[in-house]
Amino acid sequence: MASQGSSANRVSFENPPLNEVVFSVQFDSEVIDEVGILAKFLGKVSDKYPKLEKQPPLPPASETFDQPPQPGIQFQLLTGPPSHRYWFVSEDGTQIVQVQADRLMFNWREVQGDEEYPRYEALCPEFVRLLGLFVESLPEGTAAKPAWCELQYINPIPVAGDAPGTHGQLARILNFLVKDPPRDVLPPVEDTQLQQRFRIAGPDGCPSGRLYVTAVPGLRQTDMQPAYVLTLLARGRPDSESVPDGVVGFLDRAHDLIVRGFVEVTTAEMHAQWGLQEASG
Question: How far, in Å, CA of 254 to CA of 248, rounded?
């Protein structure tokens, strides 16, 4: 099943600040080992993703709705040495396939800073193709049950603070904040951090995931300008256990939520800079 797109196509930007998109599906258990990744999956993708890199594995991700978030460092108990996460990278470095024992991920990213974003409608079918190759590479008889899906949009937004080397007012970017008033004692604000969480309802109306909106100060990697990195990450249960239909169902809904949510939380000043376009009808 290819992505059917969504009504989010009615909203777009001529010059979006986006520099990375990440698709992910996590299975309910480890479904492939390193031999399978390198002996089977590598052979299916190496023509398009010839560069191989080894990375530490990512911990499991999940959502609960019966208790508040737990602050502090979370520890994961391991029963043995962790398996690796493998990156298969395209020749130009803009696309990455990430594979570990319980997960498949696919990234598009800027490298030079002038790459054109190929849009969700082109990237999601490629993720679906890779998911099919991943399932084909699993040991015979392995049940690949998707547990969690993720779609993440990362937007480094350059800003200039009132003092050299500062990020200044996050209220210039997010429309639900109030700009700091003049103060006699405190110097100009250096930077601000923020996270909001929104529950995502499943097809049955019950909570099945969350959308995270986070803003943290950083540097835009292409030119090292001070920037607020505004990330929208949707994580939730697939619409069904069917692969890929259940996964794509969630991703399409997550895409709609992220794109429209991005417009709703950002300011008119930023919309003008990015060239907001809204189709009629």
Answer: 10
